[in-house]
Amino acid sequence: MEPVYLTFILMLSIFLGFELISKVPATLHTPLMSGSNAISGITLVGALVSAGGEHVQLATILGTAAVALATINVVGGYMVTDRMLAMFKKKEGGKS
Amino acid sequence: MSMELIINLAYAVAAVLFVLGLKMLGSAATARKGNLLSAVGMLIAVVITLLDQNIVGFQWILLGLVIGAVIGAVTARLVAMTKMPEMVALFNGFGGLASLTVGWAALYPSDGQALATFTIVTIALSILIGGVTFTGSLLAWGKLSEAVSGRPFMFKGQAFVNSLILVAIVGSTVMFCMDPTNTEYLYLVIALSFLLGVMAVLPIGGADMPVVISLLNSYSGLAACAAGFAINNMILIVAGSLVGASGIILTQIMCKAMNRSLSNVLFSGFGSVGGAAEKIEGEVKAMSSDDAYYILEAAGSVVIVPGYGMAVAQAQHAVKELQELLEDNGTEVVYAIHPVAGRMPGHMNVLLAEADVPYDLLLEMDEINPRIENFDVAIVIGANDVVNPAAREMKGSPIYGMPIIDVHKARTTFVLKRSMASGFAGVDNPLFFKENTRMLFGDAKETITNLIRQFK
Predict the structure, then answer these.
(1) What separation, in Å, do the N-terminal and C-terminal C-alpha atoms of chain A show?
(2) So what's the pLDDT on residue B289?
C-alpha cells in the first residue's frame, strides 16, 4: 500500500482512539492500560512474517525473538485484564 | 479472491473488534466483554497472518509462540494486584523491544530487493521508539519495584548531555537511512535509543510514575505503529495508533491531576521548585485506635481516601472489612480516589475491586469535594500529597495548584501514617497540624485491624 494511504489510516485511527479513550472512566484506567498493552502486542503479526519467512538467518532469529516478546504482551495482557475486570462488581450481588 | 485481499479483509474485522472492545471498556458493566472481543480480534489477526504466502516455516513461529504464551500466562496468573504497575511497565518494555526487532528484521526482506527510502526511515523510527520504550520501561520497572532508588536522579549538565544524545541520534539515524547496509550505523542507532530511554526516565521520581507509565504505554503503541509502516501492514498501524492515543490521553489526565505540564514532569525532577516555604504552625495530635473507634462508632458518614501506602501495606482487604463493619453499624461509607493516587492510573480502583469493594462506592475527586464537609470522618490511608492542603493554601509550596481531595474540610480527619516523614514529594503537609486532624501512627494494616477488633 502507498505511504499516503497508510498515513491516512494513521490519522483516522488516532482521532478514533482519542474519542474512544476519553470516555473511559477513571475506575477502569488500569485495565485500560493492560488491555491496550495487549493490543500493542499486535506487533506479533509483523513478527510472524519475519520469523516464518525465507530470510537470512539473522531475520529469522530476530523474528522469533519478536514473536516471543509480542506473545508475552498479547497473552499476558489479555489474561491479566480479564482477571482484573472479573473483580469489578456493582453493589447489587457484589457481596460474596 | 486473492490471498492478500482475504488477509486484509480479516484485518479490517480485527480492527473493528479492537475498536468495539475499547468502546466497551467505557463502562465497568461491559468492560470484560470488551476485553474478550479485543482478544478475539487479535486471534483473528494472528491466525489469518499465518496464511501469508511469505511464511514458509512454522517451527520458529511455534517456538516463539510457546515461549511467549507460557511466560505471559504465568505472569498474568501470579502477579499480585499491588504489583500491577510493575507488570504493565515490564510489558510496555517487551512491546517496545518486539517492535524494535520487527523493524530490524524488516531490513532483510525475503525478496532481497532494495528498500525504499520511506521504508528505511520508518524502520529507523520503529527501532528508535522501540528502543527508548524498552530501556525506559525497564528503568521504570526498576524504580517501581525499588530495585533502583525511586528518587529522581539529577546531575549537573544533564540537559546538556541529553541534548548531545539527541543530536547523536539524529545524526546516526540520518547516516543509517542514507546507508542502510552499513550495520555500524544501525548498532549505533540501537545503542543510542537504549541510552535515551534510560536518560529520559532517570530524573523522574516514584510519585510521577503514573505519568511515565502512561507515556511509555503510548510509546509502545507508536513503536508498533512505526513497525506497521516498515512492513506495510495496516492492522499494526491501526492498533498501534489506538494504543498510542490511549497512552497520550492517560498521560494528559495524570498531568492535569498534578497541575503540571508534561515537560515539567519529564525534565524537572521534583521539589526543586524554589520559593521560601512558609513555616507550618501548630501541633500534631496523635490518637490511639481506641479513641478512633469511639469517633467512628458515632459517625454517620465516613469517606476513605486511599493512597500508595495502602498498596504497600496490602491493607485493601482490611479496609473492606472495616467498611462492612461500619455499614452494619449504620454508617455510610464511600471511597474518594484521587487520579494520581498510587503508582499508575486507576491503581487504587483495582486494589479495592480485588477486595470486593463495589465500584459504585468509589467516587472521583470532583464528585466528593463539593460534599466532603458533610462527612463526619475522613480516613486517609497512606496518602499524603493528594490530600495536602498546601496545594490550595501555600503559594510557595511546590505542589501549589495541584487539585486535591479536601479532607481537611471533613468534620474530623484521621491520617493513618507510618511516621511523621514527609510524603514522596518531600513537602510538609499542613493537614497534620490542622485543628480537626488526628494522627494514627503505625502500619496502616495493623491500625485498621485494631479498629476492626474494637468493632467486634
Answers:
(1) 54
(2) 83
